[in-house]
């Protein structure tokens, strides 16, 4: 029932240059084990794509390949029309890892202002971005005095302030309360509406409803690329969580038969 994603490519344009991401036959090995097994996918610009799957399925590895920090065994990764990791992409692609990358001895404001200055953004834009991640009340606090969730949001603000064309976010909502989580998803929707492409990983399916399209992974394989509505429709389920499980079982049955 569910063919591999590359049998049903998403129509986002006429060639790799039109897509935010164009990945073909990507194979990555980590620690002697295949972490990505022949992935092919395309992601259109100005979209929010959820990268979902259980821990260890290869989400971070795929993100690393997209931002150009992962050695790949074979295949191609084209980002905004250029080879992943190429120099012109540095200011056009933002990557927020699971471990916050901020200067602990600087305040929230100085961290975000520093990244703003690197990308030619103003102090006012830094202040606005701090507001967008819900940290206005903590502007003058040192990063080292913040909670894990707050620190993650500083890291996110440092990436957001650069206004990259492609924003790759590895589990950005982990440790956030439901209100803040909802606000961040609203912010992501605003960014996508303004033309930014977002690739957002999560291992919880309830995030999937915020995404225009889903990449569902398991054991280094891309099980499917489809919209949340298509996932529900194809599995005849009412919850995305159950739908993903149903898809995994259907795929396992296909492999056995
Ligand atoms: N530094 C490493 N050296 C060797 N193998 C690694 C390394 N990092 C990850 N792996 C392996 O690569 C595979 C994919 O890992 P990856 O971190 O991409 O998964 P993930 O889906 O992002 O997991 P999580 O949701 O837990 O972050 C796993 O089998 C993992 O054990």
TrEMBL record:
Residues 21-244 form the ABC transporter domain. One of its GO terms (molecular function) is ATP binding. Keywords: ATP-binding, Nucleotide-binding. Gene3D superfamilies: P-loop containing nucleotide triphosphate hydrolases (3.40.50.300). Pfam families: ABC_tran (PF00005). The keyword Endoplasmic reticulum does not apply. InterPro entries: AAA+_ATPase (IPR003593), ABC_transporter-like_ATP-bd (IPR003439), P-loop_NTPase (IPR027417). The keyword Nucleotide-binding applies. It comes from the Bacteria. This is ABC transporter ATP-binding protein. It comes from Rhodococcus kronopolitis.
């Amino acid at each position: 029932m569910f063919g591999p994603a590359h049998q049903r490519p998403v129509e986002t344009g006429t060639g790799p240059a039109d897509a935010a991401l164009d990945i073909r036959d990507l194979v990555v090995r980590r620690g002697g084990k295949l972490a990505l097994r022949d992935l092919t996918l395309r992601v259109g610009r100005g979209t929010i794509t959820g990268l979902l799957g259980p821990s260890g399925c290869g989400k971070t590895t795929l993100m690393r390949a997209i931002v150009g920090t992962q050695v790949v065994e074979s295949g191609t990764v084209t980002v905004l029309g250029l080879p992943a990791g190429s120099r012109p992409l540095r200011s056009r692609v933002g990557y927020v890892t699971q471990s916050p990358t901020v200067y602990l001895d600087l305040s929230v404001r100085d961290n975000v202002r520093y990244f703003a200055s690197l990308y030619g953004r103003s102090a006012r834009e830094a202040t606005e971005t701090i507001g967008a991640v819900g940290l206005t009340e903590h502007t003058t606090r040192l990063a080292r005095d913040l909670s894990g969730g707050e620190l993650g949001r500083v890291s996110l603000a440092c990436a957001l302030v650069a206004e990259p064309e492609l924003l790759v976010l590895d589990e950005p909502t982990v440790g956030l309360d439901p209100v803040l989580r909802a606000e961040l998803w609203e912010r992501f929707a605003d960014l996508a509406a303004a033309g930014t492409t977002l690739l957002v990983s999560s291992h919880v399916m309830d995030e999937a409803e915020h995404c225009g399209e889903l990449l569902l992974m398991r054991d280094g394989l891309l099980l499917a690329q489809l919209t949340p509505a298509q996932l529900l429709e194809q599995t005849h389920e009412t919850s995305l969580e159950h739908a993903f499980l149903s898809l995994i079982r259907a795929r396992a049955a296909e492999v056995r038969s």
